[in-house]
Amino acid sequence: MEEANDGIGSFGKALRRATLRLSLLYWACMFVADSILGYFINIDPIDSAPLKVVLFSLSALMTYAMSLVLFRLRRYSFTQKALLCFGMTAIAAPIFTGIDFLNYAICEYPEPVKFDKLYAAYMLIEGASMMFGWSCLFMALLYNFEVRDRERRLAAVREEALTAQMQALRYQVNPHFLFNTLNSIAGLIEEGAATRAERMVQSLSNFLRTSLALDPMLDVALAEELRLQQDYLAIERERYADRMDFVVDVPEQMHHAMVPSLLLQPLIENAIKHGVGQSLEHTQIRIWARRRNESLCMAVENTRYPNAARFTSPEGLGIGLRNVAERIRVRFGDAGAFRIDAADGTRFRVEIELPWRTA
User: Fold this and answer.
1) 9 and 47 co-located in one domain
2) Which residues form the Signal transduction histidine kinase internal region domain (predicted)?
3) Which domain holds residue 250?
């Protein structure tokens, strides 16, 4: 297919290999079919085999040339390519008939051979059928390869986008969170609460060090993910000491389960923003995980403030939860799930379900 000159690399190489295999199969089938048909019209398939081998071998070369033309002009519209197939068939069919007649004349030499118009007409129809049949078959093959190539490219683009998003998440620190944390530390120092300020600094240091060291494209043990989120929650608890606490309810035997890194971070940020940040009442944040058959179910819950808006889907929330839902969908497909539950009005829960996997 001359893929190097066309600049399509592996696509052209794969298509050329497939074309050669398909051509071999196609003309082998034509050989068998023509031999069977000849048998019923009193043509000995054994005696005619050498002629057919020559005829179909040269025809295979013609159809390969036709395929090359269609490949070169693959950007044309479907109608243009259909007309091109008709045109090339109109040229190739007389050549097919001429090769057959020449074959016969060589075999009968030095005896003269009379040109039989009726037989030539049959051969012309047979040649046109074979040539046009190949054109349609190659068009189907070409479309199949183009669709698969587009799917591969689209998957690669999606993967690159997801990688970029995850890499951005690796270095993302909410500026408001960092600003408020530093202000809180400064306030604690001014109040003389050195112990609390020291705890807050230590938690902030642990959180930043761990989150920046993680590769967001790799999975981590659930225990490691929980440690990171506990550092984050410890910072927020120091900020909201009078109206926030958190509970982590995860059995120890589940700590070795593998989860995508930083998956819980947006869920916890959302719980703080919409739970603690918008209520003067005491808010509890609860993280729990359970194994259900071959699935790992995790959830982040927060006490619901009285006048909270009733969200029922990730589209009703911020970009963080939408990204988590999309990340689960892209990574796990139907094996993953993202659910929001706020039916009872007292608690808001975001639950995710992943396939159970261990290191």
Assistant:
1) yes
2) 164-243
3) 172-355
